[in-house]
């Protein structure tokens, strides 16, 4: 199952989180991804009005892994929202989403002006921040 390697590495990095409440769920994520893949596999077969094949396609598995990562990131955002995380990076992303959610377009100058630090980030740091924010939201 070569598609599971990225999820395994993703989980390994997340498993080092300092909060025990978050670390406990990471071991189950591979199983969750497998269950989601099976549900997608059977749903796709039902939509096509046929019986499911005996093996799950790499595309379905890849979609399930991406969805599992997204679920994990959403869980982290919710834990941040209720104050269970001490991660300043996630805290900044959460505050940013609260401030700008629902806006049609946000440019780099808006993000830089919003940034609450004496020294404002450079273009590369802003791009990385926005990429992380988009991946979580």
Write the layout of secondary structure elements.
Layout: H1 4-14, H2 20-26, H3 29-47, H4 58-81, H5 88-100, H6 108-114, H7 123-136
Q: What report would you give on this structure?
A:
- The protein is mainly α and 137 residues long.
- Helix content is 69%, strand content 0%.
- 12% of the residues are buried.
- The N terminus is likely disordered.
Helicity level = 55-70%
Strand runs, count: 0
Q: What would you report as the Rg, rounded to the nearest angstrom?
A: 18 Å
Distance between the termini: 28 Å
Gross morphology is elongated
Largest sheet: none
Work out the oligomeric state of the chains in this entry.
single chain
- Let me know the average pLDDT: 79
Give the uncertain stretches in residue-range form: 1-5
| Beta-strand residue percentage | under 5%
Run of helices and strands: HHHHHHH
Count of helical stretches: 7
Q: In the residues, how many domains can be counted?
A: 2
Structural class of the helices, strands and pairings? mainly alpha
